[in-house]
Amino acid sequence: MYLSIDLIKHILYNAIMDKFSALADPTRRLILEMLAREGQLSATEISDNFQATPSAISQHLKVLREANLILMEKRAQQRLYQINPQAVDELEQWVKQLTRQWEERFAALDQLLEAEKKKILEEKERTEDQ
Fold first, then answer.
1. DSSP alpha helices (H): ranges in 52-84?
2. Which member of 19, 20, 29, 115 has the greatest number of CB atoms within 10 A?
3. Are 22 and 28 in contact (CB under 8 A)?
4. Which residues contact 35 (CB under 8 A, 6 or more apart)?
5. Averaged pLDDT score across all residues of the chain
6. How far apart (Å, rounded) are the C-alpha atoms in residues 129 and 119?
């Protein structure tokens, strides 16, 4: 089966955007921060840190899991959650790529501004010499 480059880019872009959509909610960001700080936690341990109902926290965990930001492991009756390091690495790489692109644009803008500044100074010197 042949996939076009555009389709592959579209799929990868949507995978990254799904992660950002999941991170748009402050409660989900707090859950991720908690997992980053404390490591693997049960749903109950996570839910105990919020005023929201356990059911609401369960829905947040589901969104994070579907976005592949966290991993869930079943141990008997317990569900244990942890950050998915691969997903975090993907986000980090995407942000680094975006940062490089903006740095290149700003460098080009700096060069353009310096060239314009030089033209203005040269024109000013010519008019003063006359």
1. 54-66
2. 19
3. yes
4. 41, 46, 70, 81, 82, 83
5. 87
6. 15
Contact between 87 and 99 under an 8 Å Cβ cutoff? The reply is no
* Cβ neighbours, 10 Å, residue 62: 13
**How far, in Å, are 8, 41, 61, 120, 129 from residue 47 at the CA level?**
37, 10, 10, 63, 76
Q: How confident is the model at residue 76 (pLDDT cuts 50, 70, 90)?
A: confident
- Summarised one tens digit per residue, pLDDT across range 50-64 is 999 999 999 999 999
**Cα 62 from chain centre:** 18
Strand partners, 72: 81
Distance CA 23, CA 62 (A): 13
Alpha-carbon separation of residue 122 from 98, 112, 113, 116 (angstroms): 36, 15, 14, 10
Looking up tokens 């799929």 gives: 11
Rama region for 53: left / alpha / beta (φ>0; ψ in -120 to 50; rest):
beta
Length of the chain: 130
